Amino acid sequence: xxxxxxxxxxxxxxxxxxxxxxxxxxxxxxxxxxxxxxxxxxxxxxxxxxxxxxxxxxxxxxxxxxxxxxxxxxxxxxxxxxxxxxxxxxxxxxxxxxxxxxxxxxxxxxxxxxxxxxxxxxxxxxxxxxxxxxxxxxxxxxxxxxxxxxxxxxxxxxxxxxxxxxxxxxxxxxxxxxxxxxxxxxxxxxxxxxxxxxxxxxxxxxxxxxxxxxxxxxxxxxxxxxxxxxxxxxxxxxxxxxxxxxxxxxxxxxx
Length: 255
Hints:
The chain is of the alpha+beta class. 21% of the residues lie in helices and 38% in strands. The strands form four sheets. Strands 3, 4, 5, 6, 15 and 16 form a six-stranded mixed β-sheet that branches. A six-stranded antiparallel barrel has the order 7-10-9-8-11-12. The longest helix has 23 residues, at 216-238. It starts with a strand and ends in a 7-residue tail after the last strand.
């Protein structure tokens, strides 16, 4: 049995305390079982190191691991996005723009390639291309106006992708993969992306929420709001299947 206690930073007084039971199991536990794991988070998840470490450990363990998500490379799938906060995943979050394109020969690189259009800069976030046609979803990083109904995206910088990409239509959309038809809908996210219901969901968020906080008061206020949003996200995930193991690797201390 272990006890976790939380103390007030300034006063040093005990806020709350709770006992947990740590259980040791045999090395053969879950032999032959494969856990389906969804990693949700910011750049620490997006970079893929955490996911790859899980896959490497599982490769020599009696229990297998399958990672799921709409992002990542090969078996190392995830739902990680650099700079994202709890609110980005629990609410409508950021506004993205979906461009209907054709004639693409070299696909842009997600979260790396930037394009300009009508005085604004857009960073590629998602792609759904077949034979050079389909959609490219971007986040506007510079500017404030919506894109024109049709036009040309012009690459800026050294990112991978065609120098110019013509688009025949554009539309605003929520960047949150779990925000569907105006509501948080984890169940529909799984259906839309043909993803098996995970047995484990791990959430690594919080650093970006409090990054700009310069006082204890602002950090506390931000943390309270973030934790409320986190509860909403977890409840929506649990509504799909209450047996999903949820790990909220929440860092609200700015480390």
